[in-house]
């Protein structure tokens, strides 16, 4: 039997029972639509959260002092941790593939500009911070690449701080006081928004060396590395670890690559999407039961036809294929309708509720369509087996 | 050529065993015209079903064109049915949702004949059976005689060796019944074996060879009589 005729034969018998085929396909359509819609929402959220986390760039490696493992050493030895120094940061820059290094010191200080006073976050960083954290300079320029030993007193304002302190006025070249020390404003940053409670806009950036003395610290709180696109995070991390171990004599620091963090996050979100997809599949299952019911009825009604087909030389396998094919065609049509409804629904939802991130993933679209066909197949097997197993003589007698 | 040798078919009805066919042997040559008559339950239909490979005998063997069909499995028997046997039923057995053309086309579709060839063959069949102006009609828009003609066209579209007709006039008025019998006889003249089961003695007597059955046995075979004379 030609595949073309096969599909036509299936379609013809489905069209003959228009209303009932429509209702059965509707069951599958609702299932597929809910799977597509729910996974669209899940996938949208997935992307939203990931983009929140990757706004600082993905090729990042963070190094923090202290080792987060328990050792068998006595208390006296544990305190013997060598802090991360500006020299460490400088040395890390020589690692192959590393593009930029930012030493980080963070603190809180009072900023005075003219008569306005505001307590804000102070980031002591290097000249490369905009590149590494992917923040853009709005006006002026970022901190100059000074020798840490003789860093000049420049400050760069976050967008919110600039607004609070200078309103619409131009802050460039203005003198301000931070924590009692005098700085000159070199530039201001574009808005970057909040993340996990850090407001990068309500902040001021000063040279790390200045921040160390301002907060009376000896060591850096963090060193961030940016490595070249396409570089292997683990390899760079290993180089950094080797280098610091050579400098410190032991591993008294922790290296976290952004990639590791994202991987964990990604897998958590992936499972979330899968879970909502599984929820949607429950209705798909109900649709499958509908197909099973309708195909069972169809086999009963068409017993005489089955007998006739057998008399005309259709083998059991052909009868089996005919009825399974009908179920699969029915499910696929329903699936296709559901796909359009689901994807359309997600699109409309995104249009009217822009805050709700939706993204229709092709993976889930194809998977759910295949799933619909498989459900049709499974639901079709039982009635089709009954049809194929009928005794042709008895089947012909049914009228 | 058809040869049945000591065929037995037993049915279990409740606690009773019914011998639908009891040691039936029969030889049919190419191009013969045979009518089978007998009371209800005499085994006529069972015999027809066994010749048509819709049913398997419990004992004995059946040779069709030098092939022992009792050795064939289900799918192989289906192939033999497809190419060698055409059925004509009392209740026509047309597929109600298909037009006359599509009903006649059905065996060709099952066999996988290309659409172009199908179209040509069905067109010729429609003309041969005087159905050209009814090609797009569905069974419920056709008269009984027309329905049976569609069924015969369908049974012969594969150019079978044997036509098995089980009471083909049972549901028709006399005129269309006679018409149908004449069509079948015309096909027989072309060399197809025609085996006709009927209750109607007028039809039964038209054949050269008449078989009458009682209680699963062949009571009378005119051909055998001729030989014994």
Instruction: Please tell me how large the radius of gyration of chain A is.
Output: 33 Å
- In order across it, which strands form the biggest sheet of chain A? 2-3-10-5-7-6
Under CATH at level 1, the class of chain B stands as: Alpha Beta
What does the radius of gyration of chain B come to? 18 Å
Structural class of chain B: alpha/beta
Can you tell me the number of structural domains of chain B? 1
Question: What's the total count of β strands of chain A?
Answer: 12
Number of helices of chain A: 13
The helix content of chain B, as a percent range, equals 25-40%
User: How many structural domains does the protein architecture of chain A include?
Assistant: 2
Largest sheet of chain B: 6 strands, mixed
- SS elements, strand count of chain B: 10
Which spans of chain A of ≥5 residues are poorly predicted at pLDDT below 50?
Answer: 74-79
Explained architecture:
The complex is a heterodimer of chains A (399) and B (229). With 399 residues, chain A is of the alpha+beta class. Chain A folds into two domains: 3-52 and 264-397, no CATH class; 82-251, no CATH class. Chain A has helices at residues 3-16, 18-53, 75-78, 86-92, 129-133, 159-166, 208-214, 233-248, 258-301, 303-311, 316-352, 362-389, 392-397; strands spanning 60-65, 98-113, 116-125, 137-140, 154-157, 175-178, 181-189, 194-195, 198-199, 203-207, 222-227, 253-257. In chain A, the strands form two sheets. Chain A has a six-stranded mixed β-barrel. Chain A has a two-stranded antiparallel ribbon with strand order 8-9. Chain A is elongated and about 105 Å long. Chain B has one domain: Rossmann fold. In chain B, the strands form two sheets. In chain B, strands 6-7-8-3-9-10 form a six-stranded mixed β-sheet, sandwiched between helices. A four-stranded antiparallel β-sheet of chain B has the order 2-1-4-5, with helices on one face. In chain B, helix 3 packs parallel to helix 5 (144-156). Chain A binds chain B through residues 1-2, 4-5, 9, 12-13, 16, 304-305, 307-318, 392-393, 396, 399, and chain B through 49, 52, 54-55, 74-75, 78-83, 85, 87, 89, 91, 93, 95, 97-98, 106-107, 109-112, 114-115, 154, 158.
């Amino acid at each position: 039997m030609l595949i073309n005729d096969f599909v036509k034969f299936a379609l013809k018998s489905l069209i003959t029972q228009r209303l009932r085929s429509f209702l059965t396909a509707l069951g599958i359509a609702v299932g597929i639509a809910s799977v597509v819609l729910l996974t669209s929402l899940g996938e949208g959220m997935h992307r939203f959260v990931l983009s929140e986390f990757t706004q600082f760039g993905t090729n990042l490696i963070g190094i923090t002092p202290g080792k987060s493992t328990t050792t068998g050493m006595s208390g006296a030895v544990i305190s013997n941790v060598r802090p991360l120094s500006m020299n460490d940061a400088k040395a890390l820059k020589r690692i192959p593939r590393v593009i930029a290094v930012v030493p980080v010191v963070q603190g809180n200080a009072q900023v005075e500009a003219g008569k306005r006073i505001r307590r804000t976050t102070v980031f002591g960083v290097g000249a490369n911070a905009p590149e590494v954290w992917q923040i853009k300079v709005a006006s002026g320029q970022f901190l100059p690449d000074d020798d840490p030993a003789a860093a000049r007193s420049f400050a760069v304002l976050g967008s919110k701080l600039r607004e609070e302190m200078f309103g619409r006025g131009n802050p460039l070249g203005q003198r301000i006081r931070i924590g009692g020390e005098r700085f000159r404003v070199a530039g201001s940053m574009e808005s970057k928004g909040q993340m996990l409670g850090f407001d990068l806009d309500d902040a001021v950036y000063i040279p790390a060396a200045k921040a160390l003395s301002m907060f009376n610290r000896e060591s850096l709180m963090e060193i961030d590395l940016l490595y070249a696109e396409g570089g292997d995070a683990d390899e760079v991390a290993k180089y950094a670890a080797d280098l610091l171990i050579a400098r410190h004599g032991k591993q008294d620091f922790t290296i976290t690559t952004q990639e590791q963090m994202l991987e964990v996050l990604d897998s958590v979100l992936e499972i979330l999407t899968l879970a909502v997809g599984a929820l949607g599949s429950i209705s798909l299952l109900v649709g499958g039961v509908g197909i099973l019911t309708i195909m069972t009825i169809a086999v009963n009604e068409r017993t005489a036809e089955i007998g006739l087909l057998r008399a005309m030389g259709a083998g059991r396998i052909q009868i089996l294929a005919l009825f399974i094919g009908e179920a699969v065609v029915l499910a696929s049509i329903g699936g296709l309708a559901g796909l359009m409804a689901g994807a359309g629904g997600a699109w409309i939802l995104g249009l009217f509720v822009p805050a709700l991130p939706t993204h229709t993933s092709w993976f889930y679209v194809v998977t759910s369509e295949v799933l619909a066909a498989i459900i049709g197949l499974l639901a079709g097997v039982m009635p089709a087996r009954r049809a194929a197993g009928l005794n042709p003589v008895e089947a012909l007698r049914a009228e | 050529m058809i040869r049945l040798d000591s065929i037995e078919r037993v049915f279990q009805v409740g606690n009773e065993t019914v011998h639908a066919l009891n040691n039936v042997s029969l030889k049919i040559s190419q191009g013969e015209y045979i009518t089978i008559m007998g009371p209800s339950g005499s085994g006529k239909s069972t015999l027809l079903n066994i010749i048509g490979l819709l049913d398997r005998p419990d004992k004995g063997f059946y040779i069709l064109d030098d092939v022992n069909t009792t050795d064939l499995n289900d799918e192989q028997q289906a192939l033999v049915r497809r190419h060698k046997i055409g059925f004509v039923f009392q209740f026509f057995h047309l597929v109600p949702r298909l037009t006359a053309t599509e009903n006649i086309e059905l065996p060709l579709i099952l066999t996988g004949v290309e659409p172009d060839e199908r179209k040509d063959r069905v067109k010729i069949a429609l003309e041969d059976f005087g159905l050209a102006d009814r090609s797009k009609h569905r069974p419920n828009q056709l008269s009984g005689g027309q329905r049976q003609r569609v069924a015969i066209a369908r049974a012969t579209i594969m150019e079978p060796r044997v036509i098995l007709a089980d009471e083909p006039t049972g549901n028709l008025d006399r005129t269309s019944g006679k018409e149908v019998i004449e069509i079948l006889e015309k096909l027989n003249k072309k060399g197809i074996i025609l085996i006709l089961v009927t209750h109607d003695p007028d039809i039964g007597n038209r054949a050269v060879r008449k078989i009458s059955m009682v209680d699963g046995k062949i009571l009378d075979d005119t051909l055998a009589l001729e030989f014994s004379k």
